[in-house]
Amino acid sequence: MKPVFMTYTKKDLINLAVCMVLSVLVIPTFITTEYWYTSILIPWLCLALATIGQQVVMGYTGQLALGAAGFMAAGAFAMFNLILRVPDLGFVGSLIVSGLIAAAFGILFGLPSLKVRGIYLMVATLASQFFIIWMIDKFGWFKNYDSSGIITAQDIVILGKPFTTPLAMYFVCLAVTTVLTLLAMNMARGSTGRNWMAVRDMDIAAESMGVSLLKTKVQAFAISAFYCGVAGALFAFCYLKSLEPVAFDIKLSFKILFMCILGGLGTINGAFIGAAFILLFPVLLNAIGNNVFHGAIDATIISSIEQVIFGGLMIIFMIYEPLGMAKLWENLKQKVSLKFQSSNVKNLKSSLSKKS
Amino acid sequence: MEYERKFKIGKPILEVNNISLSFGGVKAITDTSFNVLEHEVRAIIGPNGAGKSSMLNCINGIYKPQQGTVSFRGQQIPNITPNIMAQMGLSRTFQNLALFKRMSVLDNILVGRKLHTKTNFLEVALQLPKVKKEEKLNRDRSEEIISFLEIEDIKDTPVGKLPYGLQKKVELGRALATDSTIILLDEPMAGMNVEEKRDMCRFILKVNDELGTTMVLIEHDMGVVMDISDRVVVLDYGKVIGDGTPDEVRSNQKVIDAYLGVEH
Predict the structure, then answer these.
(1) Binary contact (A207, B112; C-beta < 8 A)
(2) For B1-89+180-264, which CATH class?
(3) Domains of chain B: which residue ranges?
(4) Looking at residues A334-344, what average pLDDT do you find?
(5) Residue B68, H or E segment
(6) Does A198 touch chain B (CB under 8 A)?
(7) Percentages of chain B per state (helix, strand, coil), in multiples of 5
(8) Taking the model in full, what pTM does it have?
(9) Predicted local confidence at residue B261, as pLDDT
């Protein structure tokens, strides 16, 4: 299909329009309970954004990195300090600068990728996770010498207007996520993404074509950390509404890794599908526990079952569909359109036979 | 009849001087020198394990020889890396295929346009007008190469799903997309049937003829080598045992003994 607008095909534009109508018009009119915004939609957008970051480095560039939550923490605390100490920057300015600060950490911790690869790189990138959390805990300056351990996040004020209701915060997250997703898609489809994938698929050939491994890998780590940093800032300011290093522990990094793999490595829409699945699945299990078994199953057992199912799914996807749920969705669409085509052919045949 | 060449064979463009390469105690190449002239088709032949692929890897910077130098257009190049050689205008294909398997044919060939892509990731993210212009130029060139290689019908297929012969073609296409002055081909016809080989020869000669690209190729099929190359260098146990036109090499006793076999 020929691109009709920038790098987008007609199909992409329709998809984009549907998504925008759904998220801007349909959701705010039909979902009125606060719970959905504060516990599902806002964290979904934030985590999907972080997962896009993970996709850039892992799905597109093929560098096994684990430590997204560390970069999220860097972004969140940078945001807190920027609003506190440089109020002139404003919310959007602070958000961008916190992303850049996280990107600086990304460059630093992405350097080992030049020498080590695979599972060893994963261990090396774990350092970022522990170092950043340790640094925030160790130096009181980052927390503004707050002794309680949990700091309340400042209110979001954009151009003098406060954004404090769940719906307003949802729109803030939506706007940031939409812009960054479009930028990520442009990069992934353009020459930048081709360089990433060339490094992923065959680094020696990429180098022989003039793709610099150093530049490409470090660039991917920086962009990935930028996305994680912005996501972390939104996560802290819109979802948690507080800042504590514990919220960004290794478990969150693993969660983002699961979202990335289940959603589909090397896809942008997979980040949203994966994040939705991991967030909604526990809700679904709880609903089943309450409504089908009427609370006969203990909540702790349900949360254990959740872990078991996630683990099982990871193995199943790795073996049968390494490209994740995005690929399943693609296959489903293809099957449906094939069915339509074949039924059209049948109709045509029957009408022809009637004529003769 | 001698046909008229559009690009006359010129001065040496690539010189390999006294290269020695060893892996631990195993000597792969010993004190080897030869040159490649501009616009010619140069073949490197030799029995298995003669050091042909190692030679290409030394020229391209994947292996670092312990001794010897490589000169490009008369200039000695210190610290050769694949990236530097690519920037100097030298591209290559690989013996065991090194394609980007999960990417489409078109995307693979577009990666070859890397050095003709000057926009950075921010400009790409924002899709500035100059990015679109550049992308269109690169796509047009890639489409040209795709139709030249007669692989239009598979251009959107992921390369990993293609049969071997077509993958070899895609790899040649990717090397062509760089618009390099020299292309190194590591066994471009290995594992192909007669028809595919004939096609590949045609492409190699056509590129050489129309664009004047210097071709250096490793090949096992003697018939092919003698037919298409201007000059042949013969390696055996990492040493040059013959160098010259196909006819000279064919009548060289050392080469006959080592490679073509002694006639009874």
Answers:
(1) no
(2) alpha beta
(3) 1-89+180-264, 99-177
(4) 79
(5) strand B67-72
(6) yes
(7) 40, 25, 35
(8) 0.91
(9) 62
Contact (CB<8Å) B125/A206: no
Q: Which of B58, B62, B83 would best serve as a mutation to test chain A binding (most A beta carbons within 10 A)?
A: B83
B72-79 contacts at long range (C-beta below 8 A, 24 or more positions apart): B72/B13, B72/B14, B73/B13, B74/B12, B74/B15
Q: What is the ipTM of this complex?
A: 0.91
Backbone angles phi, psi at A6, to 5 degrees: 50, -130
DSSP code per residue over A172-196: HHHHHHHHHHHHHHHHHHSHHHHHH
d(CA B93, CA A323): 29
Decide which of A224 and B5 is more confident. Answer: A224
Two tokens at A226? 């930028």
Test mutation, A208, A219, A227, A230, chain B, max B CBs within 10 A: A208
pLDDT for the residue B254: 86
Q: Which residues of chain B have pLDDT under 70?
A: 1-3, 259-264
Residue A233 scores a pLDDT above 90: yes
∠ Cα B117 B120 B122 (to 5°): 145
Using a CB-CB cut-off of 8 Å, the residues of chain A touching B121 are 187, 192, 219, 223
Residue by residue, DSSP assigns A293-304 as STT-S-HHHHHH
Contact B60 A208 (CB under 8 A): yes
Q: What is the CATH number of domain A31-355?
A: 1.10.3470
d(CA B204, CA B201): 5
In A126-185, the residues whose Cβ lies within 8 Å of chain B are 183-184
CB distance A209–B138 less than 8 Å?
no
